[in-house]
C-alpha cells in the first residue's frame, strides 16, 4: 500500500491584477514593491483593465494635471473593470473641507474598494486579499488548500468536529480537547469537494461523536454554494453522498452513536449514496455497565435499533468496539454482553480488556477486576466475535463485490489488495485480489474493480477480479 503520499491540488484559476502606475520615480518604486509582492504570492498581471480580476491605481497628487490624470485613470478602471484599489500620493489627500486622507478620491469615485497613501505595500496587499483571495501556490505555501494528507491519495479522513460533550468515565478526551466544536458545514463540504476533485475515492468521516454534529451551534443554518444547509448530521451526510456520487466515490461514517436520528441516515445507505457501513462504538450492552461508563445513548434500545437498521438496509455492516472487565462488571453483566453479541451479530467487533487511563473518573469506581479476569473475558468475547465474523465472511463467497484497490504491484499482474464497502482502511480486513485471469485486465491503486469472492481467510476475503 502506498503511504504518506502528497496529493497534487486540483488546478485552479490564477487571479489577475492590472496595475496603473502614475507619478514620479518614488511612486514607481512603490509600484514595483507591490507588483513584486503580487507575483511572489502567485497573482498574475493583466495588461488590460477589462481582463483583470481587480485593478490597482498608484496615483500622483503633485500638481493639478497629475491629480486630473490620476482621477481619470481611476474612472477608466472603474468603468472597464469595476474593482479598483487606489494607492499613492493622491490617496493621502483630503478634499476641500475634509482633511481626512483619501476623502478626495472617495468623493470623486465613491465605488473604489480601498484607498491608501504612498509606501503602503502591506495595506494594498491586505485590500487585494480581501477582494481577490490569494491563489494557492504549492511551491510557496506549505499547506495545500485542503491540508496535508498522510493517507494514500485515494482515501482521506474528513474531520467534522473536535471535542466532545460527553463525559464517559473511562475517557479523558474531553479534558484534553474540550467540548464539541462543530466545523462550519460550508467549510466541511468545501474540503470534501476539494478532496474528491483531487482524486480521493473514499472519504472517511471522523470526529469524537459524529451523531452530535451541530449540537453545539444548535443546528444553525450555514451556507454552501450559496444555498442554506443545516449544520446537522443528516444534512451533512446527504450532501456528502451527492458529492461522492458525482465523483464515483465512497463515503464511510465513523464514531456514530446510536441516537434515534441516526435512523434517518439509513435510507441514504439503502439508496447507495453513502456506504452501508456504520462504525458505532457501543463499548457494552448491559444498561447498568453503560450507566457506570456514562456512555452517550445509554438509554437506547440498541438491539432493536440494530434490527431496524438491518430491515431498512439489509446490506449494512456494523463495526463496534467493546470493553470487557470494566470496574464492577459482574459475570451476569458480562454474559449479557456475550448474549448481545450473539444476537446482534456485529460484523466487525473489537474488544479491549479494561485498562485504567490516568485522570479518568472510572478509576475511582469500586469493584476493579483483576487483570486475569479482564483478559479472560476479552478472550471469551473475541471467540464469539470471530465466529460471527467467519460466518459473515463465508456467506459472501460466490458474491461479486466492488473493491477499491489499495495495492497492485505490476498493474495487478500478480494480484493485489483492496477493500470492499465492508472494510474500513487500517482497522478491518481486506480483499486479497488474485492475479486476473484475463490478460487485458489490470488493477490500479485508487481505482475500483469488481471481484468475485472465492474464499474467506481470517478477517479477509479472497477474490478474483472480473
Ligand atoms: S469516549 Fe465518551 S467522552 Fe470520550 S470522546 Fe467518546 S463519547 Fe466523548
Automatic annotation (TrEMBL):
GO terms for cellular component: ribosome. Keywords: 4Fe-4S, Cytoplasm, Iron, Iron-sulfur, Metal-binding, Ribonucleoprotein, Ribosomal protein, S-adenosyl-L-methionine, Transferase. [4Fe-4S] cluster 1 binds at residues 24, 60, 89. Catalyzes the methylthiolation of an aspartic acid residue of ribosomal protein uS12. It comes from Roseateles agri. Binds 2 [4Fe-4S] clusters. One cluster is coordinated with 3 cysteines and an exchangeable S-adenosyl-L-methionine. This is Ribosomal protein uS12 methylthiotransferase RimO. InterPro entries: Elp3/MiaA/NifB-like_rSAM, Methylthiotransferase, Methylthiotransferase_CS, Methylthiotransferase_N, Methylthiotransferase_N_sf, NA-bd_OB-fold, Ribosomal_uS12_MeSTrfase_RimO, rSAM. It catalyses: L-aspartate(89)-[ribosomal protein uS12]-hydrogen + (sulfur carrier)-SH + AH2 + 2 S-adenosyl-L-methionine = 3-methylsulfanyl-L-aspartate(89)-[ribosomal protein uS12]-hydrogen + (sulfur carrier)-H + 5'-deoxyadenosine + L-methionine + A + S-adenosyl-L-homocysteine + 2 H(+). Residues 150-391 form the Radical SAM core domain. The keyword Signal does not apply. Its EC number is 2.8.4.4. NCBIfam families: 30S ribosomal protein S12 methylthiotransferase RimO, MiaB/RimO family radical SAM methylthiotransferase. Residues 394-466 form the TRAM domain. It is an enzyme of class 2 (transferase). The keyword Ribosomal protein applies. SMART domains: Elp3. Gene3D superfamilies: Methylthiotransferase, N-terminal domain, Nucleic acid-binding proteins, tm_1862 like domain. It is found in: Cytoplasm. PANTHER family: RIBOSOMAL PROTEIN S12 METHYLTHIOTRANSFERASE RIMO, RIBOSOMAL PROTEIN US12 METHYLTHIOTRANSFERASE RIMO.
Amino acid at each position: 500500500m502506498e503511504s504518506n503520499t502528497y496529493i497534487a491540488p486540483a488546478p485552479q484559476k490564477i487571479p489577475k491584477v492590472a496595475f496603473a502606475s502614475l507619478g514620479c520615480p518614488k511612486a514607481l518604486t512603490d509600484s514595483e514593491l507591490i507588483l513584486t509582492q503580487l507575483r511572489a504570492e502567485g497573482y498574475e498581471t493583466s495588461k488590460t483593465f477589462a481582463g483583470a480580476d481587480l485593478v490597482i491605481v498608484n496615483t500622483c497628487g503633485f500638481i493639478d494635471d497629475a491629480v486630473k490624470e490620476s482621477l481619470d485613470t481611476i474612472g477608466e478602471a472603474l468603468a472597464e473593470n469595476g474593482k479598483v484599489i487606489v494607492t499613492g500620493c493622491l490617496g493621502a489627500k483630503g478634499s476641500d473641507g475634509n482633511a481626512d486622507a483619501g476623502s478626495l478620491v472617495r468623493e470623486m469615485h465613491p465605488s473604489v474598494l480601498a484607498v491608501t497613501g504612498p509606501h503602503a505595500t502591506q495595506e494594498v496587499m491586505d485590500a487585494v486579499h480581501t477582494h481577490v483571495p490569494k491563489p494557492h501556490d504549492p511551491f510557496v505555501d506549505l499547506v495545500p488548500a485542503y491540508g496535508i494528507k498522510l493517507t494514500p491519495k485515494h482515501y482521506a479522513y474528513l474531520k467534522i468536529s473536535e471535542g466532545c460533550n460527553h463525559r464517559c468515565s473511562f475517557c479523558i478526551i474531553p479534558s484534553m480537547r474540550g467540548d464539541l466544536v462543530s466545523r462550519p458545514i460550508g467549510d466541511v463540504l468545501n474540503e470534501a469537494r476539494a478532496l474528491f476533485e483531487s482524486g480521493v475515492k473514499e472519504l472517511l468521516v471522523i470526529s469524537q461523536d459524529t451523531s452530535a454534529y451541530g449540537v453545539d451551534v444548535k443546528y444553525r443554518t450555514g451556507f454552501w454554494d450559496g444555498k442554506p444547509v443545516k449544520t446537522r448530521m443528516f444534512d451533512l451526510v446527504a450532501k456528502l453522498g451527492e458529492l461522492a456520487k458525482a465523483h464515483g466515490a465512497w463515503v464511510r461514517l465513523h464514531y456514530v452513536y446510536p441516537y434515534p436520528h441516526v435512523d434517518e441516515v439509513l435510507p441514504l445507505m439503502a439508496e447507495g449514496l453513502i456506504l452501508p457501513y456504520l462504525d458505532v462504538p457501543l463499548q457494552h450492552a448491559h444498561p447498568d455497565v453503560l450507566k457506570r461508563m456514562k456512555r452517550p445513548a445509554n438509554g437506547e434500545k440498541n438491539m432493536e435499533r440494530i434490527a431496524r437498521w438491518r430491515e431498512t438496509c439489509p446490506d449494512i455492516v456494523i463495526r463496534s468496539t467493546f470493553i470487557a472487565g470494566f470496574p464492577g462488571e459482574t459475570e451476569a453483566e458480562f454474559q449479557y454482553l456475550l448474549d448481545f453479541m450473539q444476537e446482534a451479530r456485529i460484523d466487525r467487533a473489537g474488544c479491549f480488556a479494561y485498562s485504567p487511563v490516568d485522570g479518568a473518573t472510572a478509576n475511582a469506581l469500586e469493584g476493579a477486576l483483576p487483570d486475569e479476569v479482564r483478559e479472560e473475558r476479552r478472550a471469551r468475547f473475541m471467540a464469539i466475535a470471530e465466529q460471527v465474523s467467519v460466518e459473515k465472511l463465508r456467506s459472501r463467497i460466490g458474491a461479486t463485490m466492488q473493491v477499491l484497490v489499495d495495492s497492485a504491484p505490476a498493474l495487478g499482474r500478480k494480484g493485489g489488495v483492496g477493500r470492499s464497502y465492508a472494510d474500513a482502511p487500517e482497522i478491518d480486513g481486506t480483499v486479497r485480489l488474485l492475479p486476473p485471469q484475463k490478460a487485458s485486465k489490470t488493477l490500479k491503486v485508487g481505482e475500483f474493480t469488481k471481484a468475485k469472492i472465492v474464499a474467506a481467510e481470517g478477517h479477509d476475503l479472497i477474490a478474483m477480479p472480473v
